[in-house]
Write a structure and sequence with these properties.
The structure is a single chain. By secondary structure, this protein is an alpha+beta fold. The protein is 35% helix and 11% strand. It has 10 helices and 12 strands. It has a 4-stranded mixed beta sheet. Strands 1-4-12 form a 3-stranded antiparallel beta sheet, covered by helices on one side. It has a 3-stranded antiparallel beta sheet with strand order 5-6-7, with no helix packed on it. The radius of gyration is 23 Å and the shape is globular. It starts with 8 loop residues before the first helix and ends with a strand.
Length: 436
């Protein structure tokens, strides 16, 4: 009788981990397809401004990421779907060769939407093969790159929505991305109160025990904070409308110099997508089409300059990113309900573990007063993925908290978003802070 060998628990665990990652991969890729589903082929091809990208490009670029950074170096015998795609769908990876100019992505009528869909299927088949067939050494290299690629695609899901919203807003027909559901009676915003923080030495950045994070969230380090207060919730549309009607866009003393120049050059009179500001009830363009402005919703689509000017008008300031993270970590706030509520990313029911801090995660990105700089001891990832974050650490401001368009898995206190101060097409708002 032959002796039975004991089960290899490590092999079983490896199989389970690979299976779980494949299921996660399939879910993320399906979500991208679901977000694009309401759009016509014409919608998917147009680029509304240099900072935005066509939906078709987002779908192709995220596949290019997996093909170029995972499959080509790690799957034996891999042959590219189309060698020309390396030029068309590289975003900013200088080490990977030349690329099509970003402002001209909208002229790429070819490949067609159907060809991009075939490209995605081709890459998906390769990823399944890699996960199932890779030996232990290859899997050790592949797993972190695959995980990064999934989070990268989720970032592009958010960009897909912000970019398509900007595109549709330019159409005189004001088409909706999704039909508006039956509108519930507008709710009242909670009265604004102030959350006290004693300051002191606090730990900032990603805790390695908490799972995945981007490299710009590391390393975890200590900062020293002076005592401060943070507003209990974001500034609302109704409060921002008061700023407008008090001449906020006509008072240069409230604005940073560059901000005042932006107001003049752009003829800004209100946040992006607002109309009929002088009417009793202004209107706002949303992913659900043009709707009456809800005064209780958090104001969004503000530049950093507008957020800073409002804070000056309100006799307060913007928090630093470290003040924001310290408060979010200590209060452990839960995501609040979305306002553009038919968006496919699910959210938990309203609530917060600390009644004084509301809507910290998953409502609007909140501008901070912090420059996007490396943390002490920051080191980019090795290889081409080292270009992912580090080289953008100049001339940008940090936003925290996530928005209604942010995938739920990216809602964490340490997450650092960043944009130039004049950017308005993101779901960006503000929360006030002040010194104690």
């Amino acid at each position: 009788m032959q002796r039975e060998e004991p089960a290899d628990d490590s092999a079983c665990g490896d199989d389970e981990a690979r299976g779980a990652l494949l299921r996660h991969y399939a879910a993320v890729r399906a979500t991208s397809e679901a977000l694009a589903a309401p759009l016509s082929p014409e919608d998917r091809c147009v680029q509304s401004m240099p900072d935005a990208s066509p939906t078709k490009w987002h779908l192709a670029h995220t596949s290019w990421f997996f093909e170029t950074l995972v499959l080509q170096p790690l799957l034996r015998g891999w042959r590219a779907f189309d060698e020309r795609y390396a030029f068309l769908f590289n975003s900013y990876y200088e080490s990977l060769g030349p690329r099509h100019p970003r402002p001209q992505r909208g002229v790429l009528t070819r490949p067609s939407c159907d060809e991009v869909a075939a490209y995605r299927r081709f890459v998906d088949e390769g990823m399944v093969r890699l996960v199932r067939e890779a030996d232990a050494a290859t899997w050790t290299r592949a797993e972190p790159l695959l995980t990064l690629g999934l989070h990268h695609e989720q970032q592009h899901q958010e960009l897909l929505l912000t970019d398509i919203k900007h595109l549709l807003s330019l159409n005189p027909l004001a088409p909706a991305y999704l039909p508006a559901p039956r509108q519930a009676p507008p709710h009242e915003a909670q009265p604004l109160s102030w959350w006290d923080c004693a300051g002191g030495r606090v730990e900032i950045g990603h805790d390695p025990r908490d799972g995945f994070a981007f490299d710009n969230e590391t390393p975890r380090h200590a900062v020293l904070l002076a005592p401060y207060q943070l507003a209990s919730r974001p500034v609302t549309n109704g409060e921002y409308l008061e700023f407008i009607r008090d001449g906020g866009y006509r008072r240069p003393q409230l604005w940073l110099s560059d901000g005042w120049s932006a107001v003049q050059q752009g003829a800004w009179e209100a946040p992006l997508y607002w109309s009929d500001v002088d009417a009793d009830v202004p209107s706002v363009f949303t992913l659900l089409g043009r709707l009456p402005l809800n005064p209780a919703e958090p104001v969004c689509h503000l530049s950093f300059y507008e957020a800073s000017a409002y804070a000056a008008w309100a006799g307060a300031r913007l928090p630093t990113e470290f003040e924001w993270e310290a408060a979010a970590s200590q209060a452990a706030p839960l995501p609040a309900p979305r306002f553009e509520a038919s968006h496919p990313h699910p959210r938990p029911a309203a609530g917060t573990a600390a009644p004084q801090l509301q809507q910290m995660l998953g409502e609007v990105w909140e501008w901070t007063r912090s420059s996007y700089d490396p943390y002490p001891g920051f080191r980019p990832l090795p290889g081409a993925v080292g270009e992912y974050n580090g080289k953008f650490m100049v001339g940008q401001l940090v936003l925290r908290g996530g928005s209604c368009a942010t995938p739920a898995g990216h809602l964490r206190a340490s997450y650092r978003n960043f944009f130039p101060p004049g950017a308005r097409w993101q779901f960006s708002g503000l929360r006030l802070a002040r010194d104690l």
